[in-house]
Amino acid sequence: MSAPAASADFTDSTASPASPAFSVVICAYTEDRWEDILAAVSSVRAQSRPALETLLVVDHNEALRERLLKEYAQGEDREHGAGREVRVLANAGPRGLSAGRNTGIAASRGEVVAFLDDDAVAERDWLRHFAEGYADPAVVAVGGRTVPVWASGRRPDWFPEEFDWVVGCTYRGLPPGRVRVRNVLGGNASFRREAFAAAGGFATGIGRDGDRRPLGGEETELCIRLSRARPGAVLLIDDRAVIHHRVPRPREHFAYFRTRTYAEGLSKALVARSVGAQKGLESERRYATRVLPAGVVRGLRDAVLARPGGAGRAGAIVAGVLSAAGGYVLGSVRARRSGVAFSPAPVGEGAHG
Question: What is the pTM (predicted TM-score) of this model?
């Protein structure tokens, strides 16, 4: 869970319209998501505000890379209009999402680099809403809202909306509208290229690595590092920039919920080790002391009113907090013992790979 601290609605009446060129990076690692990958690319090609290019970065899977190269023959899409060029690349760094994103950043040509998960589709005005945020030159990152698409067709009764970050989606507790935040959420986010020149790229060793333990937090660490490198930088979330993220059936089960919350605790320990506990846990404290207790009360009230899943949601919130806390304690001990440190990749302006 990367819980962005949010301020009131952010507006800038002095900002003038801007039209930065967007490169969209989609990282993929398995052929099991073939149809999802094609749908993600199609959603970028259908944007009302066309992207300069789409970069598909394949994480150490040569069979998938070869298949995608055939699907999107290099260079041929330039003839089909703006926003249709697709470039297929191999992850040039160690296995994992962070290195894949860094590969895409280094190879991109746009002024802004946007990231879309390989199992998500963007609504038609996704990039247009991102672009509006960059009308203010102080804005260095803009994120959006991620809506879950449950494989079963509906949200499990016991699954609390406050924990939608478990399945990579926007969770209950974030204010609506366009708001200033501590960090954007990585699967639906964009950054000015100059942000990577100032702060470096995503730190490897924090985020996901294929189907292994579902760690996270790499975008939180990057955003905190960016705010330190550029003290006046503004980061936004605009809930009109919507993507729809597929949630497979195994992730609808409590076993995954427990595993993911525990892994988030491990991730938070690594982030706190990198940027300090005060900043690394700043918005998590508000989330844990205000948003989650309100969710427990709602669940218990629903249980009293005999509404489906009320007690289950209250119990899941408590279990999620305990699991994440356990992961954080263990992760902190391990980090101190191992002296773990992170070296962000130097991917900056002009690094077009």
Answer: 0.88
